Protein backbone atom coordinates (compact mmCIF):
# COMPACT_ATOMS: atom_id res chain seq x y z
CA UNK A 1 0.00 0.00 0.00
CA UNK A 2 1.50 3.29 -1.07
CA UNK A 3 1.60 6.41 1.08
CA UNK A 4 -0.98 8.11 -1.12
CA UNK A 5 -3.39 5.16 -0.84
CA UNK A 6 -2.76 4.96 2.87
CA UNK A 7 -3.49 8.67 3.42
CA UNK A 8 -6.55 8.39 1.15
CA UNK A 9 -7.98 5.79 3.51
CA UNK A 10 -8.08 8.28 6.39
CA UNK A 11 -11.60 9.56 7.08
CA UNK A 12 -10.35 13.13 7.71
CA UNK A 13 -8.56 13.24 4.34
CA UNK A 14 -11.69 11.95 2.56
CA UNK A 15 -13.77 14.51 4.42
CA UNK A 16 -11.70 17.48 3.26
CA UNK A 17 -11.09 16.28 -0.31
CA UNK A 18 -14.43 14.63 -1.14
CA UNK A 19 -18.10 15.49 -1.41
CA UNK A 20 -18.76 15.03 2.35
CA UNK A 21 -17.18 18.06 4.10
CA UNK A 22 -19.19 17.51 7.31
CA UNK A 23 -18.06 13.88 7.64
CA UNK A 24 -21.55 12.47 8.03
CA UNK A 25 -21.62 10.00 5.19
CA UNK A 26 -19.08 8.23 2.98
CA UNK A 27 -16.11 10.12 4.43
CA UNK A 28 -16.73 8.66 7.86
CA UNK A 29 -16.93 5.05 6.69
CA UNK A 30 -13.99 2.76 7.16
CA UNK A 31 -13.39 -0.58 5.47
CA UNK A 32 -14.68 -2.28 8.63
CA UNK A 33 -17.81 -0.18 8.63
CA UNK A 34 -18.44 -1.06 4.99
CA UNK A 35 -18.46 -4.77 5.88
CA UNK A 36 -21.03 -4.39 8.68
CA UNK A 37 -24.58 -5.45 7.80
CA UNK A 38 -27.69 -4.93 9.88
CA UNK A 39 -28.83 -8.11 11.58
CA UNK A 40 -32.25 -7.66 9.99
CA UNK A 41 -31.05 -7.01 6.45
CA UNK A 42 -31.43 -10.64 5.38
CA UNK A 43 -35.08 -10.94 6.40
CA UNK A 44 -37.54 -11.97 3.68
CA UNK A 45 -40.25 -9.75 5.11
CA UNK A 46 -41.21 -7.60 8.05
CA UNK A 47 -44.53 -8.21 9.80
CA UNK A 48 -46.15 -5.55 11.98
CA UNK A 49 -47.27 -6.88 15.34
CA UNK A 50 -48.17 -5.88 18.89
CA UNK A 51 -46.23 -6.91 21.98
CA UNK A 52 -48.14 -9.63 23.88
CA UNK A 53 -46.87 -8.90 27.39
CA UNK A 54 -49.17 -6.17 28.72
CA UNK A 55 -52.12 -4.01 27.79
CA UNK A 56 -50.01 -1.07 26.54
CA UNK A 57 -49.86 -2.54 23.03
CA UNK A 58 -46.38 -1.46 21.92
CA UNK A 59 -45.82 -1.89 18.20
CA UNK A 60 -43.27 -4.43 16.99
CA UNK A 61 -41.54 -5.18 13.71
CA UNK A 62 -41.13 -8.94 13.39
CA UNK A 63 -38.45 -10.00 10.90
CA UNK A 64 -39.06 -13.31 9.13
CA UNK A 65 -36.69 -15.40 7.02
CA UNK A 66 -37.68 -18.72 5.46
CA UNK A 67 -40.93 -18.70 7.46
CA UNK A 68 -39.18 -18.35 10.83
CA UNK A 69 -38.96 -15.35 13.12
CA UNK A 70 -35.36 -14.13 13.24
CA UNK A 71 -35.61 -10.83 15.09
CA UNK A 72 -38.12 -8.58 16.88
CA UNK A 73 -37.68 -4.87 17.51
CA UNK A 74 -39.80 -1.83 18.27
CA UNK A 75 -41.90 -0.34 15.49
CA UNK A 76 -40.91 3.30 14.96
CA UNK A 77 -44.27 3.93 13.23
CA UNK A 78 -46.23 2.95 16.35
CA UNK A 79 -47.96 5.93 17.99
CA UNK A 80 -48.00 4.00 21.26
CA UNK A 81 -44.33 3.15 21.72
CA UNK A 82 -42.58 5.05 18.88
CA UNK A 83 -40.04 2.26 18.36
CA UNK A 84 -39.32 1.56 22.01
CA UNK A 85 -39.76 -1.73 23.86
CA UNK A 86 -39.38 -2.56 27.53
CA UNK A 87 -37.09 -5.46 28.56
CA UNK A 88 -39.97 -7.94 28.29
CA UNK A 89 -40.97 -6.68 24.85
CA UNK A 90 -37.34 -6.80 23.72
CA UNK A 91 -37.27 -10.50 24.67
CA UNK A 92 -40.35 -11.37 22.58
CA UNK A 93 -38.24 -13.44 20.19
CA UNK A 94 -37.96 -16.07 22.93
CA UNK A 95 -41.73 -16.62 22.76
CA UNK A 96 -41.36 -18.04 19.27
CA UNK A 97 -37.88 -19.53 19.26
CA UNK A 98 -37.09 -20.25 22.92
CA UNK A 99 -36.25 -23.80 23.92
CA UNK A 100 -38.88 -23.68 26.71
CA UNK A 101 -41.73 -23.01 24.26
CA UNK A 102 -44.23 -25.84 24.04
CA UNK A 103 -45.64 -26.70 20.63
CA UNK A 104 -48.22 -29.20 21.81
CA UNK A 105 -51.07 -29.46 24.28
CA UNK A 106 -50.15 -30.87 27.68
CA UNK A 107 -52.72 -32.29 30.09
CA UNK A 108 -52.48 -33.32 33.71
CA UNK A 109 -55.27 -35.56 34.90
CA UNK A 110 -57.04 -34.83 38.20
CA UNK A 111 -54.76 -35.89 41.06
CA UNK A 112 -52.06 -36.66 38.49
CA UNK A 113 -48.42 -35.73 38.96
CA UNK A 114 -47.22 -35.90 35.35
CA UNK A 115 -48.12 -33.97 32.21
CA UNK A 116 -49.07 -35.94 29.13
CA UNK A 117 -49.35 -34.82 25.52
CA UNK A 118 -52.84 -34.51 24.09
CA UNK A 119 -54.16 -33.88 20.60
CA UNK A 120 -55.56 -30.37 20.10
CA UNK A 121 -58.94 -31.67 18.87
CA UNK A 122 -59.23 -33.87 21.95
CA UNK A 123 -58.40 -30.95 24.26
CA UNK A 124 -60.96 -28.69 22.54
CA UNK A 125 -63.64 -31.37 22.88
CA UNK A 126 -62.82 -31.78 26.58
CA UNK A 127 -63.12 -28.03 27.14
CA UNK A 128 -66.44 -27.82 25.27
CA UNK A 129 -67.84 -30.80 27.22
CA UNK A 130 -66.80 -29.25 30.54
CA UNK A 131 -68.30 -25.85 29.69
CA UNK A 132 -71.60 -27.47 28.68
CA UNK A 133 -71.64 -29.63 31.81
CA UNK A 134 -70.80 -26.71 34.14
CA UNK A 135 -73.45 -24.56 32.47
CA UNK A 136 -76.07 -27.29 32.80
CA UNK A 137 -75.27 -27.99 36.48
CA UNK A 138 -75.05 -24.31 37.46
CA UNK A 139 -77.96 -22.96 35.43
CA UNK A 140 -80.53 -20.78 37.19
CA UNK A 141 -83.80 -19.75 35.55
CA UNK A 142 -84.90 -17.68 38.52
CA UNK A 143 -83.27 -16.09 41.57
CA UNK A 144 -84.32 -16.94 45.12
CA UNK A 145 -86.70 -13.94 44.94
CA UNK A 146 -88.44 -15.39 41.90
CA UNK A 147 -86.90 -12.94 39.43
CA UNK A 148 -86.10 -14.33 36.00
CA UNK A 149 -82.28 -14.34 35.67
CA UNK A 150 -81.36 -17.00 33.06
CA UNK A 151 -77.73 -17.33 34.15
CA UNK A 152 -75.10 -19.77 35.26
CA UNK A 153 -72.74 -19.54 38.17
CA UNK A 154 -70.99 -22.71 36.99
CA UNK A 155 -68.05 -20.87 35.42
CA UNK A 156 -66.51 -17.44 35.15
CA UNK A 157 -64.05 -15.56 33.00
CA UNK A 158 -60.95 -13.69 34.13
CA UNK A 159 -59.19 -12.05 31.21
CA UNK A 160 -55.55 -11.06 31.21
CA UNK A 161 -53.91 -7.70 30.66
CA UNK A 162 -52.43 -8.84 27.36
CA UNK A 163 -55.86 -8.93 25.72
CA UNK A 164 -56.75 -5.94 23.58
CA UNK A 165 -60.17 -4.25 23.43
CA UNK A 166 -61.37 -6.36 20.52
CA UNK A 167 -60.47 -9.63 22.23
CA UNK A 168 -62.10 -8.51 25.49
CA UNK A 169 -65.23 -7.52 23.56
CA UNK A 170 -65.47 -10.97 21.94
CA UNK A 171 -64.82 -12.77 25.24
CA UNK A 172 -67.53 -10.70 26.95
CA UNK A 173 -69.97 -11.53 24.13
CA UNK A 174 -69.13 -15.25 24.29
CA UNK A 175 -69.46 -15.61 28.05
CA UNK A 176 -72.61 -13.48 28.16
CA UNK A 177 -74.14 -15.68 25.45
CA UNK A 178 -73.25 -18.73 27.53
CA UNK A 179 -75.09 -17.20 30.49
CA UNK A 180 -72.10 -16.33 32.68
CA UNK A 181 -72.35 -13.26 34.88
CA UNK A 182 -68.92 -13.41 36.51
CA UNK A 183 -66.84 -11.80 33.78
CA UNK A 184 -63.85 -9.76 34.85
CA UNK A 185 -60.49 -8.63 33.55
CA UNK A 186 -57.19 -8.55 35.39
CA UNK A 187 -56.48 -5.06 34.07
CA UNK A 188 -59.45 -3.70 36.06
CA UNK A 189 -58.61 -5.43 39.33
From TrEMBL:
Gene3D superfamilies: 3.40.50.740, ADC-like domains. GO terms for biological process: anaerobic respiration. Residues 44-100 form the 4Fe-4S Mo/W bis-MGD-type domain. Its cofactor is [4Fe-4S] cluster. One of its GO terms (molecular function) is molybdenum ion binding. Keywords: 4Fe-4S, Iron, Iron-sulfur, Metal-binding, Oxidoreductase. Pfam families: Molybdop_Fe4S4. InterPro entries: Mopterin_OxRdtase_4Fe-4S_dom (IPR006963). Its main location: other. SMART domains: Molybdop_Fe4S4. Signal peptide: none annotated. One of its GO terms (cellular component) is cell envelope. It is found in: Cell envelope. It comes from the Bacteria. Belongs to the prokaryotic molybdopterin-containing oxidoreductase family. This is Dehydrogenase.
Amino acid sequence: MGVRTWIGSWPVYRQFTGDDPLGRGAAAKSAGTERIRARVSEADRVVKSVCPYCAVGCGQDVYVKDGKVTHVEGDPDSPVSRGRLCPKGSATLQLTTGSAREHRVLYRRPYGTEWEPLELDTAMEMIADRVIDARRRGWQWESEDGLRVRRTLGFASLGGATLDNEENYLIKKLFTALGAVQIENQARI
